[in-house]
Amino acid sequence: MKDPLTRRTPGRAALLLVAVAAVLPANAAVAGTGGPAAAGETVKVAVEAVPADLTYPEKKEIAMELVSSAENSSLDWKAQYKYIEDIDDGRGYTAGIIGFCSGTGDMLDLVELYIARRPGNVLAKYLPALRKVNGTDSHRGLDPHFPKDWRAAAADPVFRQAQNDERDRVYFDPAVAQARADGLRALGQFVYYDAMVMHGPGSDPVSFGGIRKAAMKKARTPAQGGDEVAYLNAFLDARKAAMKTEEAHSDTSRVDTAQRVFLKNGDLDLDPPLRWKVYGDSYQILG
């Protein structure tokens, strides 16, 4: 087992825990008194704390590190732009910061975006092959040099930004939007995002949409008037069932010893300190 991997986050900048000093006009009400403030009088206005969701940079960074701990056994997600291997899950090559796959179409979309932004790049010659192997686990037309060229492309900031943008377009933004519509806070938004990353945004029983549908048969979402913890437990149960249908994803520790731990601790806002395990390895993000 690896030594615990640790990162410290800055203070909760995303939470609005401030008191604002303001000079109010003579006819303005003083907070807590209901009476007018004298001209030129300084009063303090308390701003209510608002839990940050995954769209806040600090929370998004935590989400990226949590996913990286499961996908790459490291909190350093920015080191994964160059990652590429076939993990024998039937999806061909898996690569990059979110596990773009040659067999599922998202790698093809990424390379097309990269070509649009950087014509003639080192991956451009693989575009015909990526179109042919889409939907299969084949490496035909990619081997033997595709992994080497992928790693070379990862040195290009244009390619790294393309990975960021496709991650957000296909996975992060839809997951967070659906979670917010379902009334879920930061932890629930992350739970959706992680499921979207692994299972894809489809509607079949083992894709994100199918998992959510199965969960909603067991519990109502907060937006439907249900209890948030009960719903998230139902979703994680459905997620585990989907994972166990694939040998490559049969280890459910990213649910059991990570997401479920946060949920049991009542950390629905995904606030540090966070401590979890994936595949037996320990990680922590300290506030």
Could you characterize the architecture of this molecule?
The protein is an alpha+beta fold and 287 residues long. It contains nine helices and eight strands. The strands form three sheets. Strands 1-8-7 form a three-stranded mixed sheet. The longest helix is centred in the middle third of the chain and has 25 residues, at 157-181. The chain is globular.
What's the overall average pLDDT, rounded?
A: 87
> For the CA atoms, what is the radius of gyration?
23 Å
Query: Based on CA inertia axes, which overall geometry fits?
Result: globular
The helicity comes to 40-55%
> Ends: how far apart?
24 Å
The DSSP helix count reads 9
Secondary structural class: alpha+beta
| Number of E-type strands | 8
SSE topology string: EEEHEEEHHHHHHHHEE
Largest beta-sheet characterization: 3 strands, mixed
Which regions contain 5 or more consecutive residues with pLDDT less than 50?
8-49
Strand content: 5-15%
Placed side by side, the strands forming the largest sheet appear as 1-8-7
Brief sketch in words of this structure:
With 287 residues, the protein is of the alpha+beta class. It is 42% helix and 11% strand. The protein has a three-stranded mixed β-sheet with strand order 1-8-7. It has a three-stranded antiparallel β-sheet with strand order 4-5-6, with helices on one face.
List the helices and strands and how they pair.
Layout: E1 5-8, E2 19-23, E3 42-46, H1 57-72, E4 84-86, E5 93-95, E6 100-101, H2 106-117, H3 127-133, H4 146-153, H5 157-181, H6 186-199, H7 208-218, H8 228-243, H9 253-264, E7 274-278, E8 281-286
Parallel strand pairs: 1-8
Antiparallel strand pairs: 2-3, 4-5, 5-6, 7-8
Helix pairs in contact: 2-5, 5-6, 6-8, 7-8, 8-9
